[in-house]
Design goal:
By secondary structure, the protein is α/β, with parallel strands linked by helices. It has ten helices and eight strands.
């Protein structure tokens, strides 16, 4: 059973953040404006004692670098934020910096703000991720000392980056963490139907659709504007549909038990395992989209502890 705090937070997410097409239409929400509404808040970030924080860029892509003042390591955690490829990086991601640094033995944590839809569509975000990856290497970090962490669209971008590195015969990061990766633009997984009534973020109460109805609804949703007309079944934008071999790094995937995205996370983990790659799936009972990011209730903290243990083990 989910904790009381976890269920309360889920209901807050349902009330404030539901992006189901029917809900958006009923509330007359402007989705882009709504998803970006939190961006201007808490613009200024001050690193906690013992850390430094600076803003820089990678060939024009805004970057944020968080590092220890003393006794740092040669490890790095590259964070790829979520937000449906519409929202830019929000403040809550910075609050995870100390956790990621500790888990990487005093490593450096890097965020970046990739170009977003509707102004920029695929492959703009991937192009920016490649620039930041190359910048990390220029900074002296070795691929075997880097772990990538991405949630939602950031999970999609994480896999897109891995696929690009594989196709171009580049070295991979040591490991990757993905929280509720949004990786099937065809919405073909069964959880799009069986979790439709319980998903606080993407679902809607009181309606049990069939797969065709779900796909029709989502086809009209502004959530997919980042594709810019690109083929939804292309594995480069729907990495759940890609094939993986033993060259890919270990992955740790979290997903909420109530999520419509649950089945694509399961598909990804099963494909990695079939390729002989270490792959772990953590399902938060009755949890919602990207729940570990919020870290203020028991289920989120438990998932984060497992993520930290995974990062420590991979970078040991």
């Amino acid at each position: 059973m989910a904790s009381i705090a976890g269920r309360i937070f889920a209901e807050i997410a349902r009330a404030a953040g539901n992006v189901n097409p029917l809900t958006v239409e009923k509330k007359k929400k402007q989705l882009v404006k709504d998803l970006r509404s939190m961006e201007p808040l808490f613009k200024h970030y001050f690193a906690p004692p013992g850390y430094r924080y600076k803003k820089t860029d990678a060939d024009g892509v805004p970057m944020e670098v968080f590092s220890k003042k003393k006794n740092g390591s040669d490890k790095a955690v590259l964070v790829l934020h979520g937000g449906a490829y519409i929202s830019r990086m929000m403040f809550c991601y910075r609050l995870l910096n100390p956790r990621y640094s500790r888990a990487s033995y005093g490593g450096t944590v890097v965020h970046f703000d990739y170009r977003c839809a509707p102004e920029h569509t695929y492959p703009a975000a991937l192009e920016d991720a490649i620039k930041v990856w190359n910048k990390l290497l220029e900074m002296g970090f070795q691929p075997e000392n880097i772990v990538t962490v991405g949630d939602s669209a950031g999970g999609n971008l994480t896999l897109a980056l891995l696929i690009w590195l594989r196709e171009h015969e580049k070295e991979m990061p040591k490991a990757s963490v993905m929280m509720s990766p949004w990786i099937d633009m065809t919405a073909s997984g069964p959880s799009y139907v069986y979790n439709y009534k319980v998903d606080p973020v993407f679902g809607i109460r009181g309606k049990t659709p069939n797969p065709e109805e779900v796909k029709e609804l989502l086809a009209k949703s502004e959530l997919y504007m980042w594709l810019g007309g690109h083929d939804r079944a292309d594995p480069h934008v729907s990495p759940a549909l890609a094939e993986y071999d033993g060259a890919y790094p270990p992955i740790f995937v979290t997903v909420g038990g109530d999520e419509m995205l649950k089945s694509e996370a399961e598909t990804l983990v099963n494909k990695f395992k079939a390729a002989g790659i270490e792959a772990t799936l953590h399902v938060g009972d009755r949890m919602f989209h990207a729940f570990p990011v919020y870290q203020i209730f028991p289920e989120a903290r438990k998932a984060l502890k497992e993520i930290e243990a995974f990062i420590r083990r991979q970078l040991a």
